Amino acid sequence: MELLTEGLQTYLEQHCEHEPELLRYINRETHLKVPMARMLSGHYQGRVLSFLSKLFSPKRILEIGTFTGYATLCLAEGLTDAGLIYTLDINEELQERVQEYFDNSEFKDKIRYQIGNALDVIPNIDETFDLIFIDADKKNNGNYYDLVLPKLRNGGIIIVDNVLWSGRIVSGMSDKDTILIRDFNEKVTNDQRVEKLILPVRDGLFLIRKI
Q: Model pTM?
């Protein structure tokens, strides 16, 4: 099930900012050479992430789930002059490719790219974040959320991807992944420490603002 028709997706892409050249290259290379290329944020969602980041002008961003670095670079567009983005991923096989993309970007000195289990790495990052993007293994969404919320400043936001799960979240399906995502969404909805809003962008973005 797709949330948007192909025609509507194309229309949205035609009526937002152009996809920067490096991101266009990463998009193309990922679809040609990397398994599970659909995990890439893509043009429209990338512009949404860039827009949100620019609104917040964050000094510190944390991204959980780098994949091929597309969303990383979109988020980096909003960083302050002295800002940094920490991006964590467990896939060593993509490290060389992704590092090359980062090295060829204007944000190469602002990116702290680390390979490892995010559940182990996050407690050792001594930072307070303005913006956090969670887009990794869905079974750990709740664990990531619990780890990062204390590291988020008041007024900062967490963005969680894939919370509508191609519409399966309301289809009555009871497979393990759908149940996990549905449970996470309820966990956030019932958390009185935050304001929350789901945007039906691509596969669903949960915007969570710490009060």
A: 0.96
